[in-house]
């Protein structure tokens, strides 16, 4: 077999330039074949759903939007060490570190904290490496149904602390649940 005839997919077809017959030039057979394919698809199981009325089940290993965690006292866990940014293959994370002031001890758990923490959701591939790299258990990809919303403005995909830090009410709720269990 010569290299010219090898087809990796097995679907290679030789194209010939032979003149069409009268019946071929009417395209009736070709149109009928096309219609048969279309009709056949009408009876196949649909792969699309009517979103947003219908929603698919999330996979148990689904990785949703990131959340910057708080500890049991509601303080931000992140110490702006930068390990998440270093481990990110998409270079999606940027941050700015600040020293914690004495009067801010109730806000930040560590002596250093991220005054700016941003994730570019257009770059992120939701691999979870930032979560694995974090020594403070400060960043998690939410397993629940928190998805990054669609938008037509690129700027809006840069998520800052306002969107990433765990809501205080959620931290209080978690603490109460932990105490009860
Ligand atoms: S999930 Fe992966 S790509 Fe996204 S920010 Fe974390 S490390 Fe980067
Ligand atoms: S989220 Fe974790 S790894 Fe990233 S800067 Fe904060 S403490 Fe460091």
TrEMBL record:
Uppermost EC category: translocase
Broad class of where this protein is predominantly found: membrane
Keyword Translocase (UniProt): yes
Superkingdom of origin organism: Bacteria
Cofactor(s) recorded in Swiss-Prot or TrEMBL: [4Fe-4S] cluster
Compartment annotation: Cell membrane
Residues bound to [4Fe-4S] cluster 2: 88, 124, 127, 130
Keywords: 4Fe-4S, Cell membrane, Iron, Iron-sulfur, Membrane, Metal-binding, NAD, Quinone, Repeat, Translocase, Transmembrane, Transmembrane helix, Ubiquinone
Gene Ontology molecular function terms on file: 4 iron, 4 sulfur cluster binding; iron ion binding; NADH dehydrogenase (quinone) (non-electrogenic) activity; quinone binding
Similarity remark: Belongs to the complex I 23 kDa subunit family.
Reported function: NDH-1 shuttles electrons from NADH, via FMN and iron-sulfur (Fe-S) centers, to quinones in the respiratory chain. The immediate electron acceptor for the enzyme in this species is believed to be ubiquinone. Couples the redox reaction to proton translocation (for every two electrons transferred, four hydrogen ions are translocated across the cytoplasmic membrane), and thus conserves the redox energy in a proton gradient.
Protein name: NADH-quinone oxidoreductase subunit I
Organism expressing this protein natively: Flavobacterium supellecticarium
Lineage summary: Bacteria, Pseudomonadati, Bacteroidota, Flavobacteriia, Flavobacteriales
């Amino acid at each position: 077999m010569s290299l010219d005839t090898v087809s990796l997919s097995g679907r290679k077809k030789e194209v010939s330039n032979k003149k069409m017959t009268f019946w071929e030039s009417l395209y009736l057979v070709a149109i009928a074949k096309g219609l048969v394919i279309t009709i056949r698809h009408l009876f196949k199981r649909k792969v699309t759903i009517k979103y947003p009325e219908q929603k698919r089940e999330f996979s148990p290993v689904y990785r949703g939007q990131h959340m910057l965690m708080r500890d049991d006292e509601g303080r931000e866990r992140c110490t702006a060490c930068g390990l998440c940014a270093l481990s990110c293959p998409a270079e999606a994370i940027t941050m700015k570190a600040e020293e914690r002031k004495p009067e801010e001890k109730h806000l930040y758990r560590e002596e250093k904290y991220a005054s700016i923490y941003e994730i570019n959701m257009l770059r992120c591939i939701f691999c979870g490496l930032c979560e694995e790299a974090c020594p403070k258990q400060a960043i998690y990809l939410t397993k629940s149904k928190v998805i990054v919303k669609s938008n037509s403005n690129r700027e809006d995909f840069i998520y800052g602390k306002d969107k990433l830090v765990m809501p205080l009410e959620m931290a209080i709720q978690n603490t109460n649940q932990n105490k009860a269990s």
